[in-house]
Amino acid sequence: MIDLHLHLDGSLNPKNMLWMAEMSGVKLSFTEENELKKQMMVEPDCKNLGDYLEKFDLPLQVLQTKECLEYAVYELLKELQAQGLCYAEIRFAPQLHQQRNLTQKEVVESAVKGLEKAMKEFPIEAQLILCCMRGEANHAENLETVKIAKEFLEKGVCAVDLAGNESAYPTKMFEDVFLLAKEQNVPIIIHAGEAAGAESVEEALACGAVRIGHGIHSIESPELLERLKAEKIYLELCYSSNLQTQAVKNSCEYPLIEFLKKGILVTINTDNMTVSNTSLKREYRLLKETFQLSEEMLLQLAENSVEAAFLPQKKKLKLEQKVKQEFLKWLSTERI
Ligand SMILES: [Zn+2]
């Protein structure tokens, strides 16, 4: 299985978080594992993406040293491999890890170290996506993120992204940041059509996005859907997270089946394993049960993830075999 949309800070497990707090001398307000886990998870009364994003303050307290960043990436990949994943693209925003004066380059170097160590020890492959952040006082930091992504491209990093509060900071504010990415040939993903409408996805495409984080509000525009299909733009759906942030009110409004019927290329992802309290298998299972997806449909979704991965064609072919095998094995256990 493959997860293409997974945030590092939203996927730390509480046990590792306690260890990192000790390692870096951070005093957390919660030191008991279960209590900490509760604090790291989204509240049942989460009203919007803004509320959801508040959950990142706590994990970010510990992700401020080279050692912790390396450890967090390593441990996350160890966990993903144990869950049965064979490839993942993990994302984070280097500029959010500078509270103790690390440079963005040092942040990324440390994360790459953790990535390489895990890939050496476990049968899993992975790459990093560097997020720029929506905001108004961080233009220089966003440009720096693109430059660092270029420096580490194909050396652990595979793309840049735009994350943060979509409704407060429209995508078009960041045009020049992504113009730089385009000039540098760094692949672009943008979180869009999550807390804003189809116009935000259109703006993301204008910025050069080749994949869209969420993109569920694309369903509002038939013209946009045609374009997504024609241009083979992949949508990274994260079902549980989309319900929690109230990007859709309930499962009846979730456009998965319509996307599939219209031939839109969708992939299934977790977004944040800890904040959303989920795993990739759980997401597939939830969708299977909620939308009565056939095994063929589920396999198609898994294969879409292989196609959407930022990997050379040769590697994708190899991965496709592996994913198919593992996926069929998982499906057979699900039937019991
Ligand atoms: Zn996300």
UniProtKB/TrEMBL annotation:
Enzyme superclass (EC): hydrolase
InterPro entries the UniProt entry points to: A_deaminase_dom (IPR001365), Ado/ade_deaminase (IPR006330), Metal_Hydrolase (IPR032466)
Keywords: Hydrolase, Metal-binding, Zinc
Keyword Hydrolase: yes
Domain Adenosine deaminase: 3-325
Superkingdom of the source species: Bacteria
EC number of this enzyme: 3.5.4.4
Cofactor: Zn(2+)
A GO term for molecular function: hydrolase activity
Entry keyword Transmembrane: no
Pfam families reported for this sequence: A_deaminase
Family: Belongs to the metallo-dependent hydrolases superfamily. Adenosine and AMP deaminases family.
UniProt protein name: adenosine deaminase
Species this chain originates from: Blautia stercoris
Origin organism lineage: Bacteria, Bacillati, Bacillota, Clostridia, Lachnospirales
Gene name of this polypeptide: add
